[in-house]
Design brief:
GO terms for molecular function: cyclin-dependent protein serine/threonine kinase regulator activity. It comes from Neolecta irregularis (strain DAH-3). It is a single chain. By secondary structure, the chain is mostly helical. Among the domains are: 113 residues, Orthogonal Bundle (Cyclin A, domain 1); 106 residues, Cyclin-like (Cyclin A, domain 1), CATH 1.10.472.10. It has 16 helices and 2 strands. The N and C termini lie far apart (121 Å).
Protein backbone atom coordinates (compact mmCIF):
# COMPACT_ATOMS: atom_id res chain seq x y z
CA UNK A 1 0.00 0.00 0.00
CA UNK A 2 1.30 3.37 -0.97
CA UNK A 3 1.67 6.03 1.63
CA UNK A 4 0.21 9.46 1.04
CA UNK A 5 2.62 12.26 1.21
CA UNK A 6 2.22 14.48 4.33
CA UNK A 7 1.91 17.52 2.12
CA UNK A 8 -0.81 15.86 0.09
CA UNK A 9 -2.66 14.67 3.20
CA UNK A 10 -2.66 18.16 4.66
CA UNK A 11 -4.20 19.49 1.44
CA UNK A 12 -6.92 16.81 1.53
CA UNK A 13 -7.79 17.54 5.15
CA UNK A 14 -8.07 21.25 4.41
CA UNK A 15 -10.40 20.62 1.50
CA UNK A 16 -12.46 18.13 3.52
CA UNK A 17 -13.11 20.37 6.54
CA UNK A 18 -13.16 23.79 4.90
CA UNK A 19 -16.60 25.48 5.24
CA UNK A 20 -18.38 26.14 1.95
CA UNK A 21 -18.28 29.74 0.81
CA UNK A 22 -21.43 31.25 -0.71
CA UNK A 23 -20.71 33.04 -3.99
CA UNK A 24 -23.28 35.71 -3.07
CA UNK A 25 -21.67 36.56 0.26
CA UNK A 26 -18.23 36.43 -1.32
CA UNK A 27 -18.93 38.99 -4.00
CA UNK A 28 -21.96 40.98 -2.73
CA UNK A 29 -21.41 43.89 -0.31
CA UNK A 30 -23.42 43.78 2.93
CA UNK A 31 -25.41 46.90 2.00
CA UNK A 32 -26.67 45.26 -1.18
CA UNK A 33 -27.66 42.15 0.78
CA UNK A 34 -29.56 44.30 3.28
CA UNK A 35 -31.42 46.10 0.49
CA UNK A 36 -32.34 42.72 -1.00
CA UNK A 37 -33.77 41.55 2.32
CA UNK A 38 -35.74 44.80 2.64
CA UNK A 39 -37.23 44.28 -0.81
CA UNK A 40 -38.24 40.73 0.08
CA UNK A 41 -39.91 41.89 3.28
CA UNK A 42 -41.65 44.89 1.68
CA UNK A 43 -45.42 44.62 1.06
CA UNK A 44 -46.47 43.63 -2.42
CA UNK A 45 -48.90 46.60 -2.70
CA UNK A 46 -48.13 50.16 -1.74
CA UNK A 47 -50.72 52.67 -0.60
CA UNK A 48 -50.79 54.36 -4.01
CA UNK A 49 -51.31 51.02 -5.74
CA UNK A 50 -54.17 50.18 -3.39
CA UNK A 51 -55.73 53.58 -4.04
CA UNK A 52 -55.58 53.07 -7.81
CA UNK A 53 -57.04 49.58 -7.49
CA UNK A 54 -59.87 50.83 -5.26
CA UNK A 55 -60.65 53.63 -7.71
CA UNK A 56 -60.74 51.14 -10.57
CA UNK A 57 -63.04 48.78 -8.67
CA UNK A 58 -65.28 51.66 -7.62
CA UNK A 59 -65.58 52.90 -11.19
CA UNK A 60 -66.46 49.39 -12.36
CA UNK A 61 -69.16 48.82 -9.74
CA UNK A 62 -70.29 52.43 -9.24
CA UNK A 63 -73.72 51.96 -10.77
CA UNK A 64 -74.43 48.89 -8.63
CA UNK A 65 -73.23 50.71 -5.50
CA UNK A 66 -75.45 53.72 -6.23
CA UNK A 67 -78.48 51.51 -6.90
CA UNK A 68 -77.98 49.82 -3.54
CA UNK A 69 -77.51 53.16 -1.76
CA UNK A 70 -80.67 54.58 -3.34
CA UNK A 71 -82.63 51.53 -2.24
CA UNK A 72 -81.22 51.76 1.28
CA UNK A 73 -82.02 55.46 1.72
CA UNK A 74 -85.69 54.71 0.99
CA UNK A 75 -85.84 52.09 3.74
CA UNK A 76 -87.16 52.64 7.26
CA UNK A 77 -83.70 53.38 8.71
CA UNK A 78 -83.93 57.13 8.12
CA UNK A 79 -84.95 59.97 10.44
CA UNK A 80 -88.46 61.37 10.81
CA UNK A 81 -88.79 65.10 11.46
CA UNK A 82 -92.46 64.80 12.43
CA UNK A 83 -91.63 62.34 15.18
CA UNK A 84 -88.84 64.62 16.36
CA UNK A 85 -91.40 67.43 16.68
CA UNK A 86 -93.10 65.42 19.44
CA UNK A 87 -90.14 65.66 21.82
CA UNK A 88 -91.43 67.21 25.09
CA UNK A 89 -88.22 69.09 25.99
CA UNK A 90 -86.15 69.40 22.81
CA UNK A 91 -86.70 72.39 20.55
CA UNK A 92 -85.31 73.00 17.09
CA UNK A 93 -83.42 76.12 18.19
CA UNK A 94 -81.22 73.80 20.31
CA UNK A 95 -80.03 71.90 17.25
CA UNK A 96 -77.49 74.53 16.01
CA UNK A 97 -75.82 74.48 19.44
CA UNK A 98 -75.32 70.74 19.23
CA UNK A 99 -74.18 70.72 15.59
CA UNK A 100 -71.66 73.52 16.28
CA UNK A 101 -70.30 71.49 19.17
CA UNK A 102 -70.01 68.34 17.03
CA UNK A 103 -68.26 70.21 14.22
CA UNK A 104 -65.60 71.52 16.61
CA UNK A 105 -65.00 68.11 18.19
CA UNK A 106 -64.97 66.51 14.73
CA UNK A 107 -62.37 69.01 13.50
CA UNK A 108 -60.24 68.72 16.63
CA UNK A 109 -59.89 64.94 16.25
CA UNK A 110 -59.44 65.22 12.44
CA UNK A 111 -62.18 62.71 11.70
CA UNK A 112 -63.34 61.94 8.17
CA UNK A 113 -66.18 64.02 6.63
CA UNK A 114 -68.37 60.93 6.56
CA UNK A 115 -68.18 60.64 10.36
CA UNK A 116 -69.92 63.96 11.01
CA UNK A 117 -72.86 63.24 8.72
CA UNK A 118 -73.25 59.72 10.07
CA UNK A 119 -73.24 61.06 13.64
CA UNK A 120 -76.00 63.59 12.89
CA UNK A 121 -78.03 60.89 11.14
CA UNK A 122 -77.70 58.62 14.18
CA UNK A 123 -78.84 61.47 16.43
CA UNK A 124 -81.91 62.10 14.29
CA UNK A 125 -82.79 58.42 14.08
CA UNK A 126 -82.49 58.02 17.84
CA UNK A 127 -84.48 61.18 18.62
CA UNK A 128 -87.16 59.96 16.20
CA UNK A 129 -87.69 56.88 18.36
CA UNK A 130 -86.85 57.82 21.96
CA UNK A 131 -87.70 60.68 24.29
CA UNK A 132 -84.53 62.66 25.06
CA UNK A 133 -84.33 65.19 27.88
CA UNK A 134 -82.48 68.37 27.06
CA UNK A 135 -79.92 67.72 29.80
CA UNK A 136 -78.96 64.52 27.91
CA UNK A 137 -79.00 66.05 24.42
CA UNK A 138 -75.26 66.70 24.37
CA UNK A 139 -74.60 63.21 25.75
CA UNK A 140 -76.59 61.68 22.89
CA UNK A 141 -74.65 63.79 20.38
CA UNK A 142 -71.26 62.79 21.81
CA UNK A 143 -72.15 59.10 21.85
CA UNK A 144 -73.44 59.20 18.26
CA UNK A 145 -70.20 60.89 17.16
CA UNK A 146 -68.30 58.23 19.11
CA UNK A 147 -70.19 55.42 17.36
CA UNK A 148 -69.74 57.03 13.94
CA UNK A 149 -66.01 57.47 14.55
CA UNK A 150 -65.63 53.81 15.46
CA UNK A 151 -67.50 52.91 12.28
CA UNK A 152 -65.69 55.24 9.85
CA UNK A 153 -62.30 56.32 11.22
CA UNK A 154 -58.98 54.76 12.09
CA UNK A 155 -58.45 53.71 15.68
CA UNK A 156 -56.10 56.58 16.51
CA UNK A 157 -58.82 59.13 15.65
CA UNK A 158 -61.50 57.64 17.90
CA UNK A 159 -61.81 59.73 21.09
CA UNK A 160 -61.64 58.07 24.48
CA UNK A 161 -64.37 58.29 27.10
CA UNK A 162 -62.18 60.60 29.18
CA UNK A 163 -61.71 62.94 26.22
CA UNK A 164 -65.44 63.00 25.54
CA UNK A 165 -66.11 63.78 29.19
CA UNK A 166 -63.63 66.66 29.05
CA UNK A 167 -65.30 68.03 25.92
CA UNK A 168 -68.59 68.09 27.83
CA UNK A 169 -66.99 70.03 30.73
CA UNK A 170 -67.33 66.96 32.99
CA UNK A 171 -71.12 67.30 32.93
CA UNK A 172 -71.54 63.51 32.65
CA UNK A 173 -69.87 60.56 34.37
CA UNK A 174 -67.75 58.23 32.24
CA UNK A 175 -70.08 55.26 32.65
CA UNK A 176 -72.95 57.34 31.23
CA UNK A 177 -71.22 57.37 27.83
CA UNK A 178 -71.00 53.58 27.62
CA UNK A 179 -74.58 53.17 28.85
CA UNK A 180 -75.90 55.66 26.30
CA UNK A 181 -73.85 54.06 23.53
CA UNK A 182 -75.44 50.68 24.23
CA UNK A 183 -78.92 52.20 24.41
CA UNK A 184 -78.49 53.98 21.07
CA UNK A 185 -77.24 50.84 19.34
CA UNK A 186 -80.06 48.70 20.71
CA UNK A 187 -82.66 51.32 19.76
CA UNK A 188 -81.34 51.42 16.19
CA UNK A 189 -81.15 47.60 16.09
CA UNK A 190 -77.40 47.93 15.44
CA UNK A 191 -78.09 49.25 11.93
CA UNK A 192 -75.38 51.86 11.49
CA UNK A 193 -74.46 51.77 7.80
CA UNK A 194 -77.15 54.04 6.36
CA UNK A 195 -76.05 56.14 3.34
CA UNK A 196 -75.44 59.79 4.14
CA UNK A 197 -75.04 62.97 2.12
CA UNK A 198 -71.26 62.58 2.21
CA UNK A 199 -71.38 58.99 0.94
CA UNK A 200 -73.40 60.07 -2.12
CA UNK A 201 -71.10 63.04 -2.61
CA UNK A 202 -67.98 60.85 -2.60
CA UNK A 203 -69.41 58.05 -4.74
CA UNK A 204 -71.09 60.11 -7.42
CA UNK A 205 -69.46 63.53 -7.68
CA UNK A 206 -66.27 64.41 -5.79
CA UNK A 207 -63.71 62.63 -7.98
CA UNK A 208 -65.02 64.48 -11.04
CA UNK A 209 -64.53 68.01 -9.67
CA UNK A 210 -61.69 70.13 -8.33
CA UNK A 211 -61.07 70.76 -4.64
CA UNK A 212 -62.75 74.16 -4.62
CA UNK A 213 -66.01 72.80 -6.05
CA UNK A 214 -66.05 69.73 -3.80
CA UNK A 215 -65.25 71.80 -0.68
CA UNK A 216 -68.06 74.21 -1.49
CA UNK A 217 -70.43 71.27 -1.93
CA UNK A 218 -69.38 69.95 1.47
CA UNK A 219 -70.11 73.36 2.98
CA UNK A 220 -73.69 73.27 1.66
CA UNK A 221 -74.09 69.69 2.87
CA UNK A 222 -72.98 70.66 6.38
CA UNK A 223 -75.22 73.72 6.24
CA UNK A 224 -78.18 71.40 5.67
CA UNK A 225 -77.65 69.43 8.89
CA UNK A 226 -78.44 72.52 10.99
CA UNK A 227 -82.07 72.77 9.94
CA UNK A 228 -85.26 70.77 10.21
CA UNK A 229 -86.30 71.17 6.56
CA UNK A 230 -83.55 68.80 5.41
CA UNK A 231 -84.02 66.02 7.99
CA UNK A 232 -86.61 64.07 6.02
CA UNK A 233 -85.06 64.69 2.59
CA UNK A 234 -83.18 61.88 0.91
CA UNK A 235 -79.39 62.29 1.24
CA UNK A 236 -78.95 61.81 -2.52
CA UNK A 237 -81.20 64.82 -3.19
CA UNK A 238 -79.21 67.07 -0.85
CA UNK A 239 -75.89 65.87 -2.29
CA UNK A 240 -76.99 66.46 -5.88
CA UNK A 241 -78.38 69.91 -5.06
CA UNK A 242 -75.21 70.90 -3.16
CA UNK A 243 -72.93 69.78 -5.98
CA UNK A 244 -74.97 71.45 -8.73
CA UNK A 245 -75.10 74.69 -6.75
CA UNK A 246 -71.33 74.52 -6.21
CA UNK A 247 -70.70 73.94 -9.91
CA UNK A 248 -72.93 76.88 -10.73
CA UNK A 249 -70.93 79.15 -8.38
CA UNK A 250 -67.44 78.01 -9.38
CA UNK A 251 -67.89 77.14 -13.07
CA UNK A 252 -71.22 78.82 -13.97
CA UNK A 253 -72.84 75.52 -14.95
CA UNK A 254 -76.61 75.81 -15.07
CA UNK A 255 -78.28 73.71 -12.33
CA UNK A 256 -80.71 70.92 -13.06
CA UNK A 257 -84.33 71.89 -13.72
CA UNK A 258 -85.85 69.00 -11.73
CA UNK A 259 -88.38 70.46 -9.25
CA UNK A 260 -87.01 68.55 -6.26
CA UNK A 261 -83.42 69.61 -6.93
CA UNK A 262 -84.43 73.20 -7.69
CA UNK A 263 -86.43 73.53 -4.47
CA UNK A 264 -83.52 72.10 -2.45
CA UNK A 265 -81.10 74.57 -4.04
CA UNK A 266 -83.49 77.42 -3.22
CA UNK A 267 -83.71 76.24 0.40
CA UNK A 268 -79.91 76.12 0.69
CA UNK A 269 -79.59 79.66 -0.66
CA UNK A 270 -82.18 80.94 1.80
CA UNK A 271 -80.23 79.43 4.70
CA UNK A 272 -76.87 80.80 3.55
CA UNK A 273 -77.07 84.04 5.62
CA UNK A 274 -77.87 81.93 8.69
CA UNK A 275 -74.68 79.85 8.47
CA UNK A 276 -73.10 79.62 11.91
CA UNK A 277 -69.81 81.26 12.81
CA UNK A 278 -68.27 77.84 13.45
CA UNK A 279 -69.13 76.63 9.95
CA UNK A 280 -67.92 79.84 8.32
CA UNK A 281 -64.65 79.71 10.21
CA UNK A 282 -64.10 76.08 9.23
CA UNK A 283 -64.57 76.69 5.51
CA UNK A 284 -62.51 79.87 5.53
CA UNK A 285 -59.43 77.73 6.18
CA UNK A 286 -57.05 77.04 3.26
CA UNK A 287 -57.47 73.28 3.75
CA UNK A 288 -61.02 73.79 2.41
CA UNK A 289 -59.82 76.09 -0.39
CA UNK A 290 -61.15 79.13 1.54
CA UNK A 291 -64.49 78.70 -0.18
CA UNK A 292 -66.26 81.21 2.08
CA UNK A 293 -64.70 83.97 -0.03
CA UNK A 294 -66.66 82.65 -3.02
CA UNK A 295 -69.99 83.11 -1.25
CA UNK A 296 -69.72 86.87 -0.68
CA UNK A 297 -71.10 87.87 -4.10
CA UNK A 298 -73.66 85.04 -4.23
CA UNK A 299 -77.27 86.26 -4.44
CA UNK A 300 -77.87 89.67 -2.81
CA UNK A 301 -79.41 89.56 0.63
CA UNK A 302 -82.58 91.25 -0.57
CA UNK A 303 -83.34 88.11 -2.58
CA UNK A 304 -82.71 85.77 0.38
CA UNK A 305 -85.12 86.01 3.33
CA UNK A 306 -83.37 86.12 6.68
CA UNK A 307 -85.95 83.78 8.25
CA UNK A 308 -87.85 81.15 6.27
CA UNK A 309 -91.63 81.31 6.22
CA UNK A 310 -91.90 77.99 8.05
CA UNK A 311 -89.81 79.24 10.98
CA UNK A 312 -91.28 81.53 13.65
CA UNK A 313 -89.40 84.82 14.10
CA UNK A 314 -86.66 84.79 16.71
CA UNK A 315 -84.71 87.56 18.35
CA UNK A 316 -80.90 87.40 18.02
CA UNK A 317 -79.06 87.48 21.32
CA UNK A 318 -75.45 87.10 22.31
CA UNK A 319 -74.87 84.02 24.42
CA UNK A 320 -71.66 82.40 25.58
CA UNK A 321 -71.92 78.79 24.44
CA UNK A 322 -68.62 77.92 26.11
CA UNK A 323 -69.99 78.11 29.65
CA UNK A 324 -69.91 74.80 31.51
CA UNK A 325 -72.66 75.92 33.91
CA UNK A 326 -74.94 76.38 30.93
CA UNK A 327 -74.86 72.61 30.34
CA UNK A 328 -75.79 71.73 33.89
CA UNK A 329 -78.48 74.40 34.07
CA UNK A 330 -80.24 74.10 30.69
CA UNK A 331 -78.77 71.07 28.97
CA UNK A 332 -77.58 73.06 25.94
CA UNK A 333 -74.36 71.83 24.31
CA UNK A 334 -71.09 73.67 24.86
CA UNK A 335 -68.25 73.77 22.32
CA UNK A 336 -64.74 72.94 23.58
CA UNK A 337 -63.46 76.48 23.04
CA UNK A 338 -64.69 79.49 25.00
CA UNK A 339 -66.02 81.73 22.27
CA UNK A 340 -69.08 83.96 21.88
CA UNK A 341 -71.25 83.51 18.82
CA UNK A 342 -74.48 85.15 17.73
CA UNK A 343 -77.11 82.56 18.49
CA UNK A 344 -80.87 82.51 18.53
CA UNK A 345 -83.08 81.79 21.48
CA UNK A 346 -86.85 81.70 21.81
Amino acid sequence: MKRISPVLSRGISKKRYQEPVSPLSKFTPPTVLFEGVKRLRAPLHTASMDKRMNAKDEAEYREDILDYMHALEKSDTGANAEMMDLQPELEWFMRPYLVDFLIEVHSQFKMSPQTLHLAVLLIDRYVSKRIVFKKHYQLVGCCCLWIASKYEDAKDKVPTVRELRTMCCNAYDEDMFTQMEGHILSTLSWKIGHPTVESFLMTEFVDRDDKKTSSLARFFCELSIFHRDFVSLHPSTIARAAMQLSRHITRHIRPCELPEIASTISALLKLLPQASATLRKKYSHPSFASVMSLLEPVTPKKYIPRISLDTPPRTPTLASVGNCDRVRGTGLPTPPSDECYTVYED
